[in-house]
Design a protein that fits this description.
The protein is an alpha/beta fold and about 160 residues long. It is built from five helices and four strands, in the order βαβααβαβα. About 40% of the residues lie in helices and about 15% in strands. Helix 4 links the parallel strand 3 and strand 4.
């Protein structure tokens, strides 16, 4: 998927309608603002197929818009090809990590480094909790965590 000289990252959560599309949109804006977006393939996906084709949660979209970020992402499930084509697969919690590692074990040429996005958090908040059953404030917390983590991840990979 990634052309020569480019890097690639796939952000993953359970349904690909809350956390991972926020992380994808935040990272895309950061890379764009830094003049690096052409050097990255950026996407997001789900460990489940529950929301395939759906837009991100309206509360997440409202949170992103508050910071001038738009996204047209549609939910999709992680595929076996993703493990062979992405450099990094960054997920939100231990359940995502476990599911992804199981899937990766069935892929012969897995090249993706699978990690928690929170492992890049300078405030050491390893888990980015699912805000789906929460409030607008929970989406705000996800945004703030993604902002910190994506900034650190981009700095480490530039």
């Amino acid at each position: 998927m990634a052309a020569t000289g480019t890097k690639s990252v796939l952000f993953v959560c359970l349904g690909n309608i809350c956390r991972s599309p926020i992380a994808e949109a935040v990272f895309r804006k950061m890379a764009t603002d830094a003049g690096l977006v052409d050097k990255w393939v950026i996407d997001s996906g789900a460990t489940s197929d529950w929301n395939t084709g759906s837009s991100p949660d309206s509360r997440g979209l409202a949170c992103l818009r508050k910071y001038g970020i738009e996204t047209s992402h549609r939910a999709r499930q992680v595929t076996k090809d993703d493990f062979m084509s992405f450099d990094y697969i960054l997920c939100m919690d231990e359940s995502n990590l476990s599911d992804l590692k199981k899937k990766a074990n069935s892929v012969k040429n897995c090249r993706a480094k699978i990690e928690l996005l929170g492992s890049y958090d300078p405030q050491n908040q390893l888990i980015i909790k699912d805000p789906y059953y929460g409030s607008d404030e929970d989406f705000e917390k996800v945004y703030e965590q993604c902002l910190r983590c994506c900034k650190a991840f981009l700095e480490k990979n530039t």
